[in-house]
Amino acid sequence: SANGLHVHNSPEEAFIASGDCAFDKERLVKMLKVCEKPVAVGNIVLDDYRHVFRPDAQGDFSFYEAINPNEQYVVAGDACSGNGADYATLVALGKRSNKIMATYRAKADSDILAEKAKLLGGILKTAVVALENNSYGFHANLKLRSIYGNVYRQEKVDTDSGKISESYGWNTNSKTRADMLGEMKEDIRNGCIDLSDERIIRECLTFVKNLDSGKEEAQEGCHDDLVISTAIACSVRRRQPWEAPERPGQARKKAVIGDY
Question: Mind listing the pLDDT tens digit for each residue in 46-90?
């Protein structure tokens, strides 16, 4: 155009031209072109002690495929204040398929996020649930532990004493943040993860390196709650990969001493 500005034909092209994207942009744009609408949108409710999915166009859960009884899932999440600019999010990732099969995104307080995580984990055959335990997430994990059995425990080794301590949920600090984002970048670059949800892909495209602080984060005015949830899921999947179910009659592994 006459004023020297390049006119972008599509929002995808604008994305490719903007900012220093932390992820592989070309891969993301390819994903954006083929990503499909959810197969089901709705809510998960407890009905007579069973977790049941109820379709509802205004529901908070989006499913991108049917639940696979032979799959094992990781549910990862990021809490928020509920009344701020951020969203509370959950993603469910197949351990075998490395595909995001369901997402939750809403303005919700931490106790509500814990309830939703319990419902999603429950419908996915008691999937392991890893909620970030920083700030608002601390309360989300406290609540989750009181209502759900399979909460992720993160091990931390004390460099001085060598002692291992465990905490519930996922602690994001400068080291684990770099690790989890690095693992997610690798999965995207290698084309071995299916992000499924257009909102995740768009958040990835506006997740950039802040040139002032050097930190990788959402571009100003954008969100990264789904990016963080997905990165946690990628890390948990690596630490607790899919395990072949025991066949009937197969001997249980020898119990470790003290393991009754």
Answer: 899 888 999 999 999 999 999 999 999 999 999 987 777 889 999
Residue (of 195, 67, 184, 188) closest to 127 by Cα position:
67
pLDDT at 259: 41
H or E segment at 80?
Answer: none
E-state strands within 169-246: 207-209, 216-218
Chain CA centroid to CA 1, Å: 41
The residue among 94, 73, 95, 77 whose CA lies nearest residue 86 is 77
As a whole number of Å, the CA-based R_g of the chain is 19
Rounded CA separation 17/20 (Å): 9
Residue 181 β-bridge partners: none
Q: Record the pTM.
A: 0.87
Does residue 42 carry a pLDDT above 60? yes
Please identify which residue in the block is written with the tokens 């928020």. 80
For 74, residues 6+ apart whose C-beta sits below 8 A from its C-beta are: 92, 93, 95, 127, 128, 130, 233, 236, 237, 240
